[in-house]
Amino acid sequence: MSLDWIPRAPRESRPDFQLYREDLLQLDAPPRTTYEKRPLVNPQTGEEIEGLYVAYVVLDNEKQGNSYNLDMLKGTACAFNKASHDPSVVGVVLTGAGDRFFCTGGNVPEYSEHFIGRYGDAQEYLQVYWHIFNVVWTSSKPFIRRVQGMSIGGGEEISGICDLTVAADTASFGQVGPAHGSTAMGGAVQFKGATMTNEDAVWQLVGLEQWSAYKMFRKDYIHRLEPVLKKDGEFIRNPEVITDKYVEDGKIVYGEYKTGDEYKEAKAYAKSLEKDTSRMDKAVDEVIWEIANKYPQQVGMSLNMLRQAKRYLYDMTRAEVIYWWGANASVHGEFDMGMTAFNTSKKTGSRDADILKLRQLLAKGRRYDAELYEEVMPKPKEE
C-alpha cells in the first residue's frame, strides 16, 4: 500500500534551527571570535570528504592574550550554536589565534573599566557565559579544544566544557583568580575537582601553580599532546619540562618544569627552535576522524550522557555563580582591587594590591571601603 496519502514535508528539506547572530562572527579585526568550516580530512590519505566539515572557532585577541570580551563571548555562543545546528559539521574545534596563547581568560580592561559596580551587567555577562555551556551540553557534536599556547584563568574554564583536549607540549595550564580578586567559578572549581583528585584541584585553583601539558596529561585532564618544536627538521620534546624520567629520589618528576639555571638554559634553547604545529593539527584531525566514522546518533547520545557529570556540578552552583559574580563586582571590593591593579600596572609598576596588608587591616576590624582600598592599592609612579 502506498503511503503517499500521508502529508509530509519535501524529502530534502530541513527547518532552520539557528539562533545565532552572523554579524558577531564577521567582525573586521580583533578582538573577535571567528568561525570557519574546514573540510573533514582523512588523516591517513589526506582525502577531503565531500559535504562534511569541521567547524573551527577561534578566540582572536592576540594583543591581550586571546582574552575574551563580551562580544567575543557572544560570538563564541553564536559559533557553537551555528556549528551544533549544521548537519554538515561533524565536530567543533575551539582554539586561539597565534601560537603563544590559547586563552588567558576574561578581558581585564573590560572587567575593571565597565563591570565594577555594575552588578546587573555582571550578572548578564554570566548568563551569556552560561549559554555557551548549554549549547555544548545539548549538542550532538564532539567539541575539541586545541591548546597551542597558554591556557590560564577563564581560558581554562570556558574550554573546560569541551569533550577532549589536544595540546602542544609547550602549552601551559593554570588559574589566577584568587590572586586577582576572583574565583575560578566559571567551570574550574566545578570540573577540576571531579576530574583530578580533589587535592590536585585545590592546589591548582587556590595554590595557583602553573602546570605543563605533560603534567596535565599525567593528571588525566587532557587527551593528547604533541611536540611542536623542531631541531634540524626533527621534532623534539619541550626542553623546559622533564620528560626523560618518571621518578627521582622517590618523587614523581615527569611533567615538572626544570628549575634554576637548567630551566633558564632550556627556555633560551626553546626560543631558538623552529615551531611547527603540524603534528598537533594532525592529532586534532585524527580525533575528529575517528569520531566522524561512528554513527552520529550514538555519538550524540554518548556525549550527552557523558557530559551530565559536568553539567550536574555546574548546575548545582549556576544561580549562585551568576549572582555572586555581580555581588563580587562591588566597588572597592577584592575584584575591584585585583582587576584594577592589573589593569593599571603600566602606571603603577605593579599588577598586585598588597594582599597581606589587606588581611592585616581586616584582622583589625576594618571594612571594605574607599579608605581601605586606597591603602592597599599600588600608587602611580611619579613622572
Average pLDDT reading: 94
Radius of gyration: 23 Å
The topology string of helices and strands comes to EEHEEHHEEHEEHHEHEEEEEHEHHHHHHH
CATH architecture of the largest domain: Alpha-Beta Complex
- Domain count: 3
Which regions have little confidence, pLDDT < 50, spanning 5+ residues?
Answer: none
Record the strand order, biggest sheet. Answer: 1-2-3-5-7-10
Structural class, by secondary structure, is: alpha/beta
The tally of beta strands, per DSSP, is 15
The CATH class name of the largest domain reads Alpha Beta
The helix content is 40-55%
Strand content: 15-25%
Largest sheet: 6 strands, mixed
Shape: globular
Q: CATH superfamily of the largest domain, please?
A: 2-enoyl-CoA Hydratase, Chain A, domain 1
CATH fold-level name of the largest domain: 2-enoyl-CoA Hydratase, Chain A, domain 1
Through-space gap between termini: 91 Å
Number of helices: 15
Give me the secondary-structure topology.
Blueprint: E1 32-41, E2 48-60, H1 70-84, E3 89-96, E4 101-103, H2 108-115, H3 119-137, E5 143-147, E6 150-152, H4 154-159, E7 164-168, E8 172-174, H5 188-195, H6 198-207, E9 211-212, H7 213-218, E10 224-226, E11 229-231, E12 234-236, E13 247-248, E14 251-252, H8 260-272, E15 274-275, H9 278-292, H10 296-306, H11 308-328, H12 334-343, H13 345-348, H14 355-363, H15 370-376
Parallel strand pairs: 2-3, 3-5, 4-6, 5-7, 6-8, 7-10
Antiparallel strand pairs: 1-2, 8-9, 11-12, 11-15, 13-14
Structure characterization notes:
This protein is α/β, with parallel strands linked by helices and 383 residues long. It folds into 3 domains: 22-228 and 277-325, 2-enoyl-CoA Hydratase, Chain A, domain 1, CATH 3.90.226.10; 229-276, no CATH class; 344-376, no CATH class. The protein contains 15 helices and 15 strands. A 6-stranded mixed β-sheet has the order 1-2-3-5-7-10. A hairpin with a 2-residue loop joins strand 11 (229-231) and strand 12. Helix 1 (70-84) runs parallel beside helix 3 (119-137), helix 2 packs across helix 12 (334-343) and helix 3 packs antiparallel against helix 11 (308-328). The radius of gyration is 23 Å and the shape is globular.
